[in-house]
TrEMBL record:
Residues 85-370 form the Protein kinase domain. Keywords: ATP-binding, Kinase, Nucleotide-binding, Receptor, Serine/threonine-protein kinase, Transferase. The keyword Ribonucleoprotein does not apply. This is non-specific serine/threonine protein kinase. ATP binds at residue 120. Signal peptide: none annotated.
Length: 441
């Protein structure tokens, strides 16, 4: 899913662009400009603002200190390590550009070559450049096991072309999005899902609370959670990250950018960005982890396209709750832990942003849920589901229960069809099509 750039207030955007402090010299000579910035104390809409308190150093100031840890690559070097950006080496594509696998020599020249991911900006616009620079600056400053490591960068302002590239440690197991939603991958086991949720929560808590400056990530979603060899999660993509508000301010005012389905409604409505915007997005991803469904899915029945609206019909304390769980999990999960996580997600999704928990509170709640899971809460959905389907009364006194049941029936039927399709030989596949046709009539 790609980012949106939704500009609420054009005049504000124009102001923000004018005040952007962070554009390196775009001279027309060939060279590698460094992503340093002019310093200013004014919060702006630039890629990296200096919105934090005067007593704290800003990201650009911290970047100056850490910049020497990054390797600066020439375009030719990167062309060589990716075999001229060969399609065979392409491992991903996003809104920023294409991502290629390659190997580089260690900085000290000794030892084996290191596998890396090279992200190449394919749009030359100001927005792409600003995101590239934000990413370089934030990732140079942050350091945490759950944040992807930036190895270096390349920036070339040539006669004819402008090149912007980023070189990261390679994350061999693709993204959480791939594993949750792409049926070509084996089911992500329950415990792995919990560890991923905890890991990314710790990463975001570090951004919010563990640095000299507060960092708002702003684009939290399953595709930005990359997985290492052992399925440990690392957050990538800091192109939209922002410094938090200056002391005495409650929010940063900014153009609204992010991804549909994940951005907090208060942020979309007002352009007021806070760390609680990230907490909302985390709540969305928690529900994606539980259900195996995307936050927005156009090809679902109408009442199920928006994940948050759909799950609302199955509250965590209700007997119907188990129906939201990813059918691919079978009964291999702790029901009690799942309920706890859904409650936690609900608290992250409270409309009033100030009532959402902090990310360190989220981390604690997840640790407790994991403990519940390990000490063996009730397992699996089967009994709940059977009771639910056979029950003719609305046990929770909730409205829409008939609708919910009908939609659940339809969901399970579709899941069944999906399974058939996956396992089917040619005959099976024909049967699947017939059944679908039967359903339409
Ligand atoms: N460090 C990395 N190691 C391995 N694969 C990576 C790495 N960074 C990115 N990728 C791959 O490239 C894909 C595209 O990443 P990218 O962040 O550009 O786009 P996206 O997250 O899918 O979408 P968006 O542009 O909205 O953020 C990822 O989903 C992942 O599969
Ligand atoms: Mg991304």
């Amino acid at each position: 899913m790609q980012c949106f750039y939704y500009f609420k207030d054009k005049s504000r955007v124009a102001r923000e662009r004018k005040s952007a402090p962070a554009i390196p010299n775009r001279s027309r000579s060939e060279g590698s400009p460094s992503p340093t910035t002019k310093k200013t104390n004014k919060s702006s809409g630039s890629a990296v603002s200096t919105g934090s308190s005067l007593s704290h150093r800003s990201i650009p100031a911290l970047f100056e200190e850490k910049a020497q840890n990054l390797q600066v690559f020439t375009f030719n070097e990167l062309r060589n390590v990716t075999d001229n950006f060969s399609q065979l080496n392409k491992i991903g594509e996003g809104g920023f550009g294409s991502v290629y696998k390659g190997y580089i020599r260690p900085r000290n020249g000794r030892g084996d070559r290191i596998p890396v991911a090279v992200k190449k900006l394919n749009q030359n616009g100001l927005q792409g450049h600003k995101q590239w620079m934000a990413e370089v600056q934030f990732l140079a400053v942050v350091e945490h096991p759950n944040l992807v490591k930036l190895i270096g960068y390349c920036a070339v302002d040539g006669e004819r072309t402008i090149q912007r590239l980023l070189i990261y440690e390679l994350m061999p197991n693709k993204s959480l999005e791939d594993h949750l939603f792409n049926r070509a991958y084996p089911t992500l086991p329950w415990n792995t899902r919990l560890n991923i949720a905890l890991g990314v929560a710790q990463g975001i808590a570090y951004l919010h609370e563990g640095l000299e400056v507060q960092v708002i990530y702003r684009d939290f979603k399953a595709s930005n959670v990359l997985l290492d060899n052992d399925f440990n999660p690392k957050l990538s993509d800091f192109g939209l990250a922002r410094e938090g508000p200056a002391d005495g301010h409650t929010h940063v005012s900014t153009a609204v950018v992010g991804t549909y389905g994940y951005a907090a409604p208060d942020y979309i409505e007002t352009g007021h960005l806070t760390i609680k915007s990230d907490v909302w997005s985390f709540g969305v991803v928690l529900y994606e982890i539980l259900t195996g469904r995307r936050s927005l899915e156009k090809n679902r029945p109408r009442g199920e396209q928006k994940l948050l609206e759909w799950v609302r019909q199955f509250p965590p304390d209700s007997r119907r709750f188990s129906m939201i769980m990813d059918p691919r999990l079978g009964n291999q999960y702790s029901m009690e832990a799942a309920r706890r996580i859904a409650k936690l997600a609900d608290s992250c999704l409270i409309k009033q942003s100030k009532n959402r928990p902090s990310m360190s509170e989220v981390v604690e709640a997840l640790k407790q849920a994991i403990q519940t899971s390990e000490t063996g809460g009730t397992t699996g959905p089967t009994t709940d589901m059977i009771e639910e389907v056979s029950s003719s009364t609305d046990l929770d006194g909730e409205r829409n229960s008939d609708d919910a049941r009908a939609s659940e029936y339809s969901r399970r039927r579709m899941a069944h069809l999906e399974k058939l399709r996956e396992n089917a030989d040619a005959t099976g596949r024909r049967r699947f099509m017939l059944m679908q046709r039967a359903k339409v009539q």
